[in-house]
Amino acid sequence: MESLTGHLLVALPTLNDPNFERTVVFVLAHEADGALGVVLNRPTEAPVGDVLPGWEPLLREPGVLFEGGPVGTDSAICVARARAGVAGFLGFSRVMGQIGTVDLSRDPARVGQRLECVRVYHGYAGWSAGQLEQEIAEGSWFVFEALPSDPFRTQPEDLWPLVLRRQGGLTSALANYPPNPTLN
Questions:
Q1: Fewer CB near the last or first residue (10 Å), C or N of the chain?
Q2: Does residue 81 contact residue 96 with C-beta atoms inside 8 Å?
Q3: Rounded to 5 degrees, what are φ and ψ at 146?
Q4: How far apart are CA 91 and CA 93, in angstroms?
């Protein structure tokens, strides 16, 4: 399977895992030894400034931490969009186009001038070698190309139905599928 880095994983309604019900995962890395991504549509109530002071001016609304996934919930990952014309810089790892991850140990005042916006996630979604490919083959995930705006939607809760609707055809009808009450 070719690398899914920079793609979206959209949970099918039949995925019976409360960690991923109605989620959209942005794949940050996909290699032979596994994959890593962040859930784009699970904002929390916790302001980023409470745990990472100085990053607030760079945040895309809502300016809160996001639940990135069930793995490593004591860690943080910053997804950012570099300003147009910025080719890269120390502490920025490109994922696709102008979007990448930023090392949160960097001084936000110094890297901020190179960034358009950021979003911070606690935890991540991770898969061991072959695990993601197996889940896709079993029908747990749709795989779609990501749009540059997807990681930075101001209404992230609407991302799951939005991504499904923009696919058209029968896939778009799944956007109306009701949440699974047994997983809530």
A1: C
A2: no
A3: -85, 145
A4: 7
